Amino acid sequence: MYVRGSSEGERQRRTAQAVHVVELTQARQESADLGEVLAREQGVGVRRSGGLGSETRFSLNGLTDDQIRFFFDGVPLELAGYAFGVANVPVNLVGRVDLFRGVVPMRFGADALGGAVNLVSADLTAGTHTSASYQTGSFGTYRGTATLQHLDARSGAFARASGFVDHAENNYRITALVPDTRPEARGRTVPDEVQRFHDRYTAGGASAEAGWVRRPWARRLAARLFVADLARELQTNPTGELPYGEPRFTKGTAGGGLVYEHSLARGVRLDVRTGYAHTRTTFLDVGRCIYNWYGQCARLRRTPGEISPGTPRDDTLEEHGAYARALLDAAVLPQQASCASREAPPPPPSSCSAPSPGTRRCPASAMPFAIASPTSSPSRHPTNGRCAYPGPTSSSAMRSSRARTRPWSPNKATT
Fold first, then answer.
1. Nearest to 178 by CA among 298, 330, 350
2. Using CA atoms, how far apart are residues 356 and 317, in angstroms rounded to an integer?
3. Measured between alpha carbons, how far is 396 from 191 in angstroms, rounded to an integer?
4. Counting beta carbons within 10 angstroms of the beta carbon of residue 56, is it exposed (0 to 12), middle (13 to 18) or buried (19 or more)?
């Protein structure tokens, strides 16, 4: 026996919401990150200022920045352990992506003019499953992920753990303006091909989740803990003219969340989600050297600070973020809609009037089907376009009824 059901992504496509579902089954077999996968979709743009870990600008239907909200399983992305941007999230840790254009569903508890992007974790499968991936590329880039999950089909208890690590040297070659060393140059600059030397990126994280699914008292009850950290070096100023050799910043986040979903009654659903994250960001710029594009310390400054000469910075910023949302959703069932329609009085029966082309009507006193013989089981044989009138159930009465039956004509009254 085969049982066929619809996945959550297919059910999302059939809703009235303006949602576009991006399945990542094929993308997990490629060497593409989430930013590259989303950039293939219509109306989605992902701009990077460099290699892996660089600044990314995401646009949806031409709208960017704060006009778009990002979520992971319905929780804001920065409170779910991915504070370094949606484009750098490993593809193997996401099951699918829901793109909401324009109107953001009420269940997210956020308003955004451009829409929302919801990353959905992979579905749970009964048994124990594990997966791992490793990717390597140019300019010292490698990415690794690993997942382990177990689901007990009888009790509904599950546990899942995942982790990732990313690293990139980003030492690709660019064309930059360097000082002309010829005596007659007199301080002029000339273009030259140089190699980036201070643009390393390293990120890693892990998460663990446990709970129950498909229980009489809960459709889903799960608790999740996560930790993530990244470190990035800064190579140039925003215009790309001045090279830096020492500034860097780090960002670490840790927290957890709780999810409870339950169907209180048919068509009534309760969805509760909470989350907390502690984020620590540090920025260090205390270098004294003035670096050239060849990675050499040309000379020393009197006061430290490369980005703002004379203003050294050693900043630490700590943030505590919390999130809570409760949604009670009620849907109108088809049975309720049909009962409401039956409350209206039926229209009066129409007399035998001229039918529209291709149709045939019978007067109110006629029956659209022939009367069955009392000695046989009831049957519903059409009368080939004739109107059959009710009468006694005896054989003579039936013969009399057949004799009175005649084809209907719009120009003659039926007797």
1. 298
2. 77
3. 111
4. middle
State the CB neighbour count (10 A cutoff) for residue 292.
17
What distance in Å separates the CA atoms of residue 396 and residue 393, rounded to the nearest whole number?
A: 9
Which tokens sit at 4?
């066929």
In contact, 388 and 398? CB cutoff 8 Å: no
HSE at residue 361, side-chain half, CA atoms within 13 A, is 12
> What would you measure as the largest C-alpha separation in the chain, in angstroms?
128
Written as six digits, the tokens of 259 are 């999810």
Could you tell me if 24 and 98 are in contact, meaning their C-beta atoms sit under 8 angstroms apart? no
Q: Are 57 and 86 in contact (CB under 8 A)?
A: no
How many C-beta neighbours within 10 Å does residue 85 have?
A: 20
Q: Is 343 left (phi over 0), alpha (psi -120 to 50) or beta?
A: alpha
Residue length of the chain: 415
pLDDT at 401: 40
Instruction: Classify burial at 231, counting beta carbons within 10 Å of its beta carbon; exposed 0-12, middle 13-18, buried 19 or more.
Output: middle
327 forms beta bridges with: 271
Q: Which of 76-80, 143-147, 273-277, 404-408 has the lowest mean pLDDT?
A: 404-408
In this model, does residue 162 exceed pLDDT 70?
yes
- Measured in whole angstroms, the distance separating CA 372 from the mean position of its chain's CA atoms is 59
CA distance readout (Å), 183 to 176, 179, 180, 188, 290: 20, 11, 8, 10, 21
pTM of the model: 0.73
CA–CA gap between residue 352 and residue 363 (Å, rounded): 4
227: which residues sit within 8 A by CB, 6+ positions away?
A: 81, 205, 206, 207, 252, 253, 254
* Torsion region of 11: left, alpha or beta (phi above 0 gives left; psi -120 to 50 gives alpha): alpha
Which token pair is 61?
């239907």
